[in-house]
Amino acid sequence: MRSGNGAEGRAGLGVMEEGVEHDHQELPSDPTLRVMALESLLVEKGFVDPAALDALIDTYEHKIGPRNGARIVARAWVDPEFKKRLLADAGAAITELGYACESREHLMVIENTPERHNLVVCTLCSCYPWPVLGLPPVWYKSAPYRSRAVIDPRGVLREFGLELDEAVEIRVWDSNSEMRYLVLPQRPEGSENMTEDELAALVCRDAMIGTAKVTLRGAAR
Questions:
Q1: What CA–CA distance (Å, rounded) separates 50 from 67?
Q2: What are phi and psi of 111, to 5 degrees?
Q3: 110 or 42: whose pLDDT is higher?
């Protein structure tokens, strides 16, 4: 399987998404270099169309995956009973919308409140809830994010442009091969009259990881 999306997967240096550069830079890992070499060979032999690969990865990372999570969040915002089921047993609740985690994985949904903000990381590798968020962003897999999210979560959030009041508790959740986490962001003020579909369109991937908040400006990433 190819690592990362188009330009990110091939470059492997730094983090640039939607015109925002985060200072989490590292050289490609050995497995990444091997994947890049294999891709180059397959393209050279004519077995793989790089444009088709980029389109497939972009769809899975930015459309299919995050869209699934956004639908789950929006349903929880408009349906209090679904929200209760989601927080109690996320794996069972998401099947109501046609989604499911792999058999060996468990999904836990953690809710942001005015007093508590949740941040998800995988300190060992890049464990991530693929069925509901798609492919993990490059910065999520980077060593700086994986280490600093635990040591200095407030500082990391500040680098993403998210400034939280000192009174807000930040709780960091460490994903692993058996447990994955999805953040349920706070519903933005002023969205009371929006439909479920309109709400889903506001939810960005980063808000479901915990590095952003949902705003009325919509899903930037």
A1: 24
A2: -95, 130
A3: 110
Which of 3, 29, 103, 122 is catalytic? The answer is: 122
pTM flag (> 0.70): yes
> Which one of 29, 101, 126, 191 is the catalytic residue?
126
Mean pLDDT (the chain) is 84
Phi and psi angles of residue 109, each rounded to the nearest 5 degrees, phi first: -100, 130
Catalytic (active site) residue 204: no
Asked if 211 and 219 touch (Cβ cutoff 8 Å), the reply is: no
pLDDT value at residue 61: 65
* Number of residues assigned to the chain: 221
Task: Say which CATH topology domain 6-209 has.
Answer: Nitrile Hydratase; Chain A (3.90.330)
Instruction: Quickly list DSSP for 138-173.
Output: HHHHSHHHHHHHHH-HHHHHHHTT----TTSEEEEE
**Is 202 in a helix, a strand, or coil?**
helix
